[in-house]
Specification:
By secondary structure, the chain is α+β, with helices and mostly antiparallel strands. The chain has one domain. It is built from 2 helices and 6 strands; from the N terminus they run E-E-E-E-H-E-E-H. Strand 3 and strand 4 form a beta hairpin.
């Protein structure tokens, strides 16, 4: 399926993993079939910085679709954990837990 729309809705602050900056992006992604049904979904994508330009994770030199981690750094889980509440809120429509003022 060909992706039609990829409007970015959220971009995380980057973190350094090894020598590379990585960020998590939440964007609209809709296939032709989704557009026929008049709907769009949000999806996540890891991006890495290559000499000042952000690249999708699929262009990472060690990218491997057959690997559990797609050939990307395993420490990306640290970035995901940091952004988990935002992902849950934007994609899964879960409310963000609020801290009590009296704790």
């Amino acid at each position: 399926m060909e992706t039609i729309s990829q409007q970015i809705r959220y971009t995380s602050q980057p973190i350094k993993i090894g020598k590379t900056l990585w960020r998590l992006v939440i964007k609209e992604c809709a296939t032709q079939r989704d557009l026929e049904e008049d709907r769009k979904r949000l999806c996540t994508e890891y991006q890495w910085n290559d000499e000042g330009q952000w690249q999708p994770g699929s262009k990472w030199p060690a990218y491997n679709i057959n690997d559990t981690y797609y050939g990307m750094p395993r420490r990306l889980s640290k970035l995901y954990e940091r952004e988990k509440e935002t992902v849950d809120f934007l994609i899964h429509e879960k409310s963000i837990a609020q801290l009590s003022l009296f704790e």
